[in-house]
Specification:
With 341 residues, the chain is of the alpha+beta class. It folds into two domains: 216 residues, Glucose Permease (Domain IIA), CATH 2.70.70; 106 residues, no CATH class. The chain is 21% helix and 27% strand. The protein contains nine helices and 18 strands. The strands form five sheets. Strands 3, 5, 6, 7, 9, 11 and 12 form a seven-stranded antiparallel beta sheet that branches. It has a four-stranded antiparallel beta sheet with strand order 15-14-13-16. It is globular and about 70 Å long. The N terminus is likely disordered.
Length: 341
């Protein structure tokens, strides 16, 4: 179906979504017309599972390969198909923002054709990602403003994976994430010499995800706060880094905890709290007098229950009853702190 053919009806739907009613207090719009997430027993009608698995494999987290593989977002079912049986749902911007990136060459990414939008909510710089699109709305380009509920594309099944995405499994892969480092391209070139990075800063490795389902559902409560939601993530570990300045700390100053000692003596580095999937959700500046025995980097604590409950990212490891930062965790920290001193 041509874009203009479905655009008129989709714009009306998008305007209704943006217009209020029972949704007026919500910050984030559902990114597709599928509303089953808000219906009792609607999970099977909302998520697309991997082949042969249950709907849980279409959710966020350690839900693939018996819990060993991390899924960065959620996979949303279509509610409309065209005469050929292809998914035809309109895709909506989840909130007001600007276009950060558009990839129109589906063969260059596991995401296929995908779009990233930048939002600022309660001081939190948040990015939404919409993947496997069949079409992107005309005129969308980096820097262009968008409104929440605006039509930005059409659901599809584009991807460069070997097995592809079947017509039956066509879906929107949707992410909400924070950006790790605006120096990602230089870091990638240094640590992956000879490998391609077709998407610059907007490589999926440079996004640290939040669970979109939790945000979409919890925002219906009158006391929902995105900032408090981020600050209230479950901690996997706490790591000290003796580095006083790096891009993430500057971008997400809103996640800083006050420390009068560091305010008085100066910041020597940060104590960073991470989720199991690597989201740095709390940063505490520390002074030299507080950190003399910690060296350049130190694993300060590990939530053992969370470590065992969420086994997929393996940022820390356990050997002989002792926890340590894993090789994967070391590499992740190199990205977060790049370029370093």
């Amino acid at each position: 179906m041509k874009f203009a053919g479905w655009c008129r009806a989709a714009v009306i739907a998008g305007m209704w979504m943006a217009g209020g009613g029972a949704w007026g207090a919500e910050v984030f719009h559902l990114p597709t017309p599928n509303r089953a997430i808000y219906q009792v027993g609607g999970m099977e009608r909302y998520y697309v599972p991997t082949t042969g698995r249950t709907w849980e494999s279409g959710t966020f987290g350690c839900v693939r390969s018996e819990g060993r593989q991390f899924h960065e977002g959620i996979d949303i079912r279509p509610v409309r198909r065209d005469r050929q049986g292809e998914a035809a749902d309109s895709i909506y911007a989840t909130a007001d923002g600007t276009v950060a990136y558009v990839n129109m060459q589906g063969h260059l990414s596991n995401y296929g054709k995908y779009l990233i939008l930048r939002h600022v909510v309660e001081g939190v710089e948040l990015y939404s990602l919409y993947a496997h699109l069949s079409q992107v709305a005309p005129g969308l380009a980096p820097g262009r403003p968008v409104r929440g509920g605006q039509v930005i594309g059409v659901m599809g099944r584009t991807a460069n994976t070997r097995e592809g995405i079947s017509r039956e499994r066509a879906h929107l892969h949707f992410e909400l994430a924070l950006l790790l480092n605006d120096q990602f391209s230089a870091w990638f070139q240094k640590h992956h010499p000879g490998e391609r990075n077709d998407h610059g800063v907007w490589n999926g490795q440079n996004l640290a995800g939040l669970d979109p389902t939790q945000i979409l559902v919890r925002q219906r409560r009158p006391d929902f706060s995105l900032l408090k939601f981020v600050q209230g993530q479950t901690e996997l570990c706490r790591i000290w880094v003796r580095q006083a300045d790096f891009p993430y700390a500057r971008r997400y100053a809103v996640l800083m905890r006050r420390n009068p000692v560091a305010e008085k003596e100066g910041v020597a580095g940060y104590e960073i709290a991470f989720t199991y999937n690597g989201l740095p959700f709390q940063l505490t500046p520390r002074a030299t007098s507080e950190t003399r025995h910690w060296g350049a980097m130190a694993l300060l604590s590990v939530n053992a229950a969370e470590f065992r409950r969420q086994p997929c990212r393996k940022l820390v490891e356990e050997k002989g009853g002792q926890f340590a930062i894993s090789a994967a965790g070391q590499k992740y920290l190199q990205l977060l702190l790049y370029p370093g001193r």
